[in-house]
């Protein structure tokens, strides 16, 4: 496929690899498909982490973590050229928002709050904010086991999925799922439909789901041999993992040797996957993890979320 037919790339730079790093120097960058040209769309962001594009409304949405551990995280939106920045969820409402995703059918944003120990959902204008999952009480000892990070929504399966990364490089990460509709009479902290679908993962971070093939993909920041990787698992009709014999794990490790893999975006139409890492690199590979290509790298960048235009 010609590179000219590929999409433009949006990526978040957290700003911490600069010569003079600070917590409010994050940016949203746009790259050409080959990574040869870039431009800054949004400046001065407080540790941006998650990014998603709404092609219907021609807007992008992103999270800013703020100072981790303080309740000053926020969600913003803008036109895809960076103009008309609006506050979706104001600082002080949530703690440390991480990956976010969009259910285009319901026009709902879903996002994880790491130190807030929650999974949230709201309208694209920020209204009707609701906690869907609560894994503990904020302020409890931060062992990582209750930290919610990655999020994906599968409307056809009626489920959403999220990662709880576990301790850094700890091989105790997990992926969970629950129904999009909270069981009647139950709360975010007590719902009965939560399922842990994978455990003992190195350190799972961002999620993406290809509903056409019922396949869940994720990035992993964990330690060698299976961390710093891109992995996937096939799902059955109920949205739970199918057994695999393709690897020693209960899932497939598709590609390895990233540098703190974070951002993940599927381009199912073209049969390609994009990964961004804290080492300042953007990669592209096929849906099986093969033909892995580093399309951009810069030591002074530290990338988190990624999206396509």
Order of helices and strands: EEEEEEEEEEEEEEEEEEEEEEEE
Q: Could you say which overall geometry the principal axes of the C-alpha atoms support?
A: globular
Give the class from helix and strand content and strand pairing.
mainly beta
The second-level CATH architecture is: 6 Propeller
Output the radius of gyration: 18 Å
Q: What's the story with the biggest beta sheet?
A: 4 strands, antiparallel
Helical content stands at under 10%
Distance between the termini: 17 Å
CATH topology: Neuraminidase
Strand content: over 45%
Low-confidence stretches: none
Give average pLDDT, whole number: 94
Major beta sheet, strand line-up? 3-2-1-24
Protein name: YWTD domain-containing protein
InterPro entries: 6-blade_b-propeller_TolB-like, Cueball_EGF_LRP_Nidogen, LDLR_classB_rpt
GO biological process, one term: canonical Wnt signaling pathway
What does this protein look like?
The protein is an all-beta fold and 309 residues long. It has a single domain (9-308), classed as TolB, C-terminal domain (Neuraminidase). The chain is 0% helix and 49% strand. The protein is built from no helices and 24 strands. The chain has a four-stranded antiparallel beta sheet with strand order 3-2-1-24, with no helix packed on it. A four-stranded antiparallel beta sheet has the order 4-5-6-7, with no helix packed on it. It has a four-stranded antiparallel beta sheet with strand order 8-9-10-11, with no helix packed on it. A hairpin with an 8-residue loop joins β13 (159-164) and β14.
């Amino acid at each position: 496929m010609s590179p000219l037919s590929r999409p433009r790339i949006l990526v978040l730079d957290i700003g911490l690899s600069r010569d003079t790093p600070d917590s409010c120097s994050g940016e949203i960058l746009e790259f050409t498909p080959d990574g040869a040209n870039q431009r800054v769309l949004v400046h001065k962001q407080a540790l941006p982490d998650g990014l998603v594009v709404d092609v219907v409304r021609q807007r992008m949405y992103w999270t800013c973590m703020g100072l981790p551990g303080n309740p000053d995280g926020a969600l913003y939106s803008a036109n895809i050229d960076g103009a008309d920045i609006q506050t979706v969820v104001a600082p002080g409402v949530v703690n440390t928002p991480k990956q976010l995703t969009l259910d285009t059918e319901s026009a709902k944003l879903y996002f994880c709050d790491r130190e807030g120990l929650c999974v949230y959902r709201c309208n694209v204008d920020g209204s009707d904010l609701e906690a869907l999952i609560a894994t503990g009480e904020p302020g409890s000892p931060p062992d990582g086991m209750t930290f919610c990070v990655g999020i994906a929504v599968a409307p056809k399966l009626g489920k959403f999925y999220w990662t709880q990364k576990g301790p850094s490089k700890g091989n105790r990460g997990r992926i969970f799922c629950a129904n999009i509709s909270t069981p009647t009479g139950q709360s975010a902290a007590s719902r009965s439909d939560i399922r842990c679908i994978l455990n003992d993962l190195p350190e799972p971070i961002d999620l993406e789901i290809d509903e056409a093939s019922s396949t869940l993909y994720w990035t992993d920041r964990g330690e060698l041999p299976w961390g710093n990787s891109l992995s996937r698992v096939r799902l059955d009709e109920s949205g739970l993992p199918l057994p695999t014999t393709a690897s020693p794990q209960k899932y497939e490790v598709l590609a390895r040797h990233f540098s703190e893999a974070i951002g993940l975006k599927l381009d199912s139409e073209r049969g390609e996957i994009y990964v961004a890492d804290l080492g300042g690199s953007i990669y592209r590979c096929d849906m099986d993890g093969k033909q892995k290509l580093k399309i951009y790298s810069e030591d002074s960048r530290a990338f988190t979320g990624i999206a396509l235009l």
